[in-house]
TrEMBL record, chain A:
Pfam families xref list: BPD_transp_1 (PF00528)
Limits of the ABC transmembrane type-1 domain: 84-299
Superkingdom as given in the UniProt entry: Bacteria
CDD domains from the UniProt entry: TM_PBP2
Originating species: Motilimonas cestriensis
Topology within the bilayer: Multi-pass membrane protein
Keyword set, alphabetical order: Cell membrane, Membrane, Transmembrane, Transmembrane helix, Transport
Family: Belongs to the binding-protein-dependent transport system permease family.
Membrane-spanning segments: 29-51, 87-109, 121-141, 170-195, 216-241, 276-299
Protein name, UniProt field: Sugar ABC transporter permease
UniProtKB/TrEMBL annotation, chain B:
SUPFAM superfamilies: Periplasmic binding protein-like II
Keyword Phosphoprotein: no
Localization: Periplasm
Protein name: Probable sugar-binding periplasmic protein
Statement: the UniProt record of this protein carries the keyword Flavoprotein: no
Organism lineage string: Bacteria, Pseudomonadati, Pseudomonadota, Gammaproteobacteria, Alteromonadales
InterPro entries to which the protein is assigned, alphabetical: Bact_solute-bd_prot1, SBP
Length: 308, 413
């Protein structure tokens, strides 16, 4: 019986053909439920949502096709435009500030300081909270009548004003504050692990060559951390795009809909406002947005790695 | 053979479990509301039916609606569900609701319930839902002690409202307690619009969606006053729940609140007496007018004979004077029946009932658009967006908002 062993390592002398077959089939067998579930629950539902976005479904799915009508309505919808702009502001600032703080904290912690373990835990701890808790806590802190502003007023500085939460031009930035507070510790941990993984002989060599510390970090260490940047950006951007709980707890999209985000828009239109078609169209737009950013990025990163 | 009997037994067991059983989806889980539901359960059990509670708490029924949709789509609809206003029409259009004409005729609903309310309960002139209570939305709740201290008079029209508000402000209290959520802002706007537009134009704008009225001069005026009121609220209102706002009036932190009569429950729960510790007057300028918000149960089609009988009994029980009395005393609303003895109700409820009866004939009884009575949830949502954006942003004029209002309504129609 001819058996090909192109992919599997040479079997031990005692294996039977049956064991050989098992070796080939077992991984497939084990993976198949996951594949089926993924196919149906991810790709199947993506197609289903896409289909719904071309119908005039109201509060239950129905199949009267209306072409691109829902997308037209979406692009004419002021709230949707605001939500998209907010996502750009929130996502951009959130990722940039998290990376900056994360990298800086990691570099400082990497200076072989005392009590590193404790400090690391303190910074990492917010990550253990759910976004709902973060949102609620910051809602109280930022509320002008209850939190920070009130506190400073009581200390005697009555001119102090910090009303971002209730100011429709600034509310979206409060989301950034809360989200950065929660996630920058996690980014720090990622970079700390990356820093520890760098071969110290490279740094020693640079030091012997007389390079200054900032120079070593800027020209040697940070470029070495490129893969860490890659994973941090992927994780942060998916946190930003899917963020729903934080907005719900912190501002519920308000004041007005000034801090609305696409995920919130999608949920409220599909499930509470009985506009499933419009909601589906917005979901597809979100997917398209993610793909438009991720595909070129993944492509350049992964191709770069292969060539290296 | 044995297996077959087992199967048979199982089918019978399942059959008898549904016979005479009512499963009721609701989100009345808090204090007084839960008590009211318990009464309904007891009354159903006295008639020999079994009650299966299907309470889904939270979010003004949003989560309950999501559960309901999945249940109905999978062919497993409950007997009845707390659905109100225009959503009843949507469900009926999809052909999920049962016909209650027989019970309605036997019980004489037409005679005891005003036609403005029964119209909402009907689809294609057949009864598909049962009204439970009537809330009046255009109320103003005031704390008389605060008004006295500020030397202000409780307002009866909009001019007096602003005079009083200025006095309250000068006395260092927040004149108007408001919660910064779209539905609360819509509730406030609705009260202003009712006064400025009048009942006929209100109906034209929010029920028939007459574009000329929606972007008309009066609408711009109503929007301007609505925005002016914001100046008399406090800054921290953003995201505040309505009951917290009511509590500000109770504690004297704020002078008044414009809110539906569910606010009364908060005053009563805080041990306050109507007419003494707090007063209820119609929202400024809306004496004799009544924006109603009717809670109701829609009845879903049942296959089983026993379940159908139980469903009819449930519909009947809900509209009995006994249940109406107990339920509405707990809920703060008034009965939908206009032929009831109201001796146990307080002055606010009696006033509400008088206006309800009078306005039903004068044409001043109008559906609340802020509470899903007047229009589809799509149009309601679109109007919420425009109103809340206008109220909270300083970058848009009243005229532009009125035009936008007309545009979004047309788009969502």
């Amino acid at each position: 019986m001819p058996v090909t062993h192109t992919n599997t390592p040479a079997p031990l002398a005692s294996t039977t053909p049956w064991q050989d077959k098992m070796q080939v089939w077992l991984p497939k067998l084990i993976l198949s439920p996951t594949i089926v579930v993924t196919l149906i629950c991810v790709y199947g539902f993506v197609i289903w949502t896409g289909l719904l976005s071309f119908t005039k479904s109201r509060f239950l799915p129905q199949f009267d096709f209306v072409g691109w009508r829902q997308y037209e309505r979406l692009l004419n919808n002021d709230r949707w435009i605001t939500a998209c702009e907010n996502l750009l502001i929130f996502g951009g600032l959130f990722i940039a500030i998290c990376l900056l703080i994360g990298v800086l904290l990691a570099i400082f912690l990497d200076q072989k300081i005392q009590q590193e373990g404790m400090i690391r835990t303190i910074y990492l701890y917010p990550m253990a909270l759910s976004f709902i808790v973060t949102g609620t806590a910051w809602k109280w802190i930022l509320n002008p009548g209850l939190g920070l502003e009130n506190l400073v007023h009581q200390m005697g500085f009555t001119d102090f004003k910090f009303d971002w939460l209730v100011n429709s031009d600034m509310a979206v930035y409060t989301l950034v504050i809360a989200a950065v507070w929660q996630s920058s510790g996690f980014v720090m941990a990622l970079f700390l692990a990356g820093l520890r993984g760098i071969d110290s002989s490279i740094i020693n060599a640079a030091q012997i060559d007389g390079a200054s510390k900032p120079r070593i970090y800027w020209s040697i260490i940070l470029p070495c951390l490129r893969p860490v940047f890659f994973s941090a950006i992927i994780i942060l951007s998916h946190l930003a795009i899917k963020s729903f709980d934080l907005v719900t707890a912190l501002t519920s999209g308000g004041p007005g809909y000034s801090s609305d985000l696409p995920a919130l828009f999608m949920y409220s239109h599909s499930f509470t406002r009985g506009q499933m078609g419009l909601g589906a169209a917005s979901a597809i737009m979100m997917l398209a947005g993610i793909l438009a950013i991720l595909v070129p990025y993944l492509y350049s990163e992964l191709r770069g790695k292969r060539n290296a | 053979m044995k297996l077959k009997t087992l199967f048979l037994a199982m089918t019978f067991a399942a059959g008898s479990a549904t016979a005479g059983e009512v499963e009721v989806l609701h989100w009345w889980t808090s204090g007084g509301e839960a008590k009211s539901v318990a009464v309904l359960k007891q009354m159903m059990e006295q008639q020999g039916h079994s009650w299966k509670d299907f309470a889904v708490a939270g979010g003004g029924g949003e989560s309950a609606m999501t559960v309901l949709k999945t249940r109905v789509v999978s062919g497993n609809a409950p007997t009845a569900a707390q659905i109100k206003g225009h959503d009843i029409q949507e469900w009926a259009e999809l052909d999920y609701l049962a016909n209650l004409d027989e019970v309605a005729k036997k019980e004489g609903w037409e005679q005891s319930v005003p036609s403005v309310v029964t119209d909402i309960m009907k689809y294609d002139s057949h009864y598909v839902a049962v009204p439970v209570n009537v809330h009046r939305v255009n109320w103003l709740w005031a704390n008389p002690a605060v008004f006295e201290k500020a030397g202000a008079k409780i307002p009866t029209n909009l001019d007096e409202f602003f005079v009083a508000a200025d006095k309250l402000k000068a006395a260092g209290v927040i004149p108007l307690a408001q919660g910064g959520q779209p539905w609360q802002e819509a509730t406030l706007f609705e009260a202003v619009a009712l006064e400025i537009l009048g009942s006929a134009d209100y109906r034209k704008a929010f029920v028939d969606h007459d574009m000329a009225v929606l972007k008309g001069k009066k609408m711009v005026e109503a929007l301007t006053i609505f925005k002016k009121m914001k100046g008399y609220t406090d800054q921290a209102a953003s995201g505040r729940d309505w009951n917290i706002a009511t509590n500000m009036v109770i504690t004297g932190q704020a002078g008044m609140q414009i809110m539906g009569d569910w606010a009364k429950g908060e005053f009563i729960a805080a041990g306050k007496k109507p007419g003494v510790d707090f007063v209820c007057v119609p929202a400024p300028g809306t004496q004799g007018q009544f924006t109603f918000n009717v809670d109701s149960f829609a009845m879903f089609k049942q296959k089983d004979k026993g379940a159908m009988a139980a469903q009819n009994d449930l519909a009947k029980t809900i509209l009995t004077p006994e249940f109406q009395e107990v339920f509405n005393l707990n809920k703060g609303s008034i009965p939908v029946r206009t032929d009831m003895d109201l001796s146990k109700f307080d002055q606010c409820a009696l006033d509400s009932m008088d206006t309800f009866k009078a306005s039903a004939t004068s044409g001043d009884l109008v559906p609340s658009f802020a509470h899903g009575m007047a229009t589809t949830s799509a149009i309601q949502g679109a109007m919420y967006d425009v109103l809340t954006n206008y109220y909270n942003s300083d970058n848009i004029s009243a005229q532009d908002t009125a035009n936008l209002l007309a545009d979004v309504v047309e788009d969502a129609m």
